[in-house]
Task: structure prediction
Amino acid sequence: MSGILIVAEHTRGVLADSSADLIGAALAIKEKLGGPLRVLVAGDMPRFFAGALNRPGVDEILLAETGSANFDAAASEAATMAAAARCEPALILVGHSASGVSFAAALAVRLGSGFAADVFGLDVTGTGLRATRSGYANKVNVELDFPGKSVVVLTIRGSTFKAPDGRGEAVVTTLPLALYGIAGRYRHLGFTEAPSSDIDIGKAEFILAIGRGIQDEKNVPRFTALAEKLGATLGCSRPVADSGWLPKPHQVGLTGKVAGNCKLYLALGISGAVQHQHGMKHVETIIAVNTDANAPIYNIATSGCVLDVFDFAAALERAAG
Ligand SMILES: Cc1cc2nc3c(=O)[nH]c(=O)nc-3n(C[C@H](O)[C@H](O)[C@H](O)COP(=O)(O)OP(=O)(O)OC[C@H]3O[C@@H](n4cnc5c(N)ncnc54)[C@H](O)[C@@H]3O)c2cc1C
Result:
């Protein structure tokens, strides 16, 4: 068993960003782990995605014709099993998305492999592969080794790793697959678009996030204008999204988005619950503003300011002109 197999993901003809994230994750340990990096793409026209997946460091792209334009967990599992049987990888990476988690664990059971979900750190130590994920509602980071496992399946948290830009020199191979009785086990009833939004918390480098401390919906436009003035993306805590003050795509945290690319996070009137921290505690520079000096956000903040958010906003507005 050697090398890495990635399972790319796409929806309605568009390659998911997680596919590039997976390539980035694999490249972080490819040299240490050894062996080739292969990318599997399954669907009704997998060749369509081969160009976009051909990134530097990818050695082979495997195409699996499943005959289904829509995601099919059973067909994805069967295609990955077929690719694993052909390539015998030491590591299989799947996106930690609704699609990925619907077949990754079953795949691990069928392979008798090691398994971990929502992984955001990878390394190869003297004893082999090591994966990092969070535990106890994000209170601790857990490092996992997989002793005695010749293959490991991991689902990888989105926006955590970055793939290099540019074009690679991958060989493209079509896998012979017999999916009779497998593809079509699931019936696709329809597709519901998530509410559209022009913001992407996962890609933002500077986030100004507001919490319940802003007191009222009528204060949201003031912070929206401030974020715009500063060139920040507006994020929020869950109560702000749940109350309908801002649309759900603005929410940072466990049931929101992970601020994967963020370098500067300004947390205004946010207490810093573990579920919120899940989406932002990794950020390099966190500045917290909260009237409660004992708020948990101060445990992870780089700098803190025990101050009323409205006084802080007024000072920033003056400074920004
Ligand atoms: C399964 C589950 C999933 C969850 N997922 C998420 C998630 O994805 N994202 C998320 O954010 N939460 C999530 N939560 C909710 C989370 O537990 C907290 O309830 C939430 O993060 C609190 O939001 P908040 O900090 O805005 O509000 P609060 O906890 O009410 O904090 C408001 C803060 O504002 C401060 N404040 C008040 N007035 C002012 C002022 N004038 N100036 C300055 N500071 C002021 C207060 O001191 C307080 O610390 C989840 C919970 C569960 C159970």
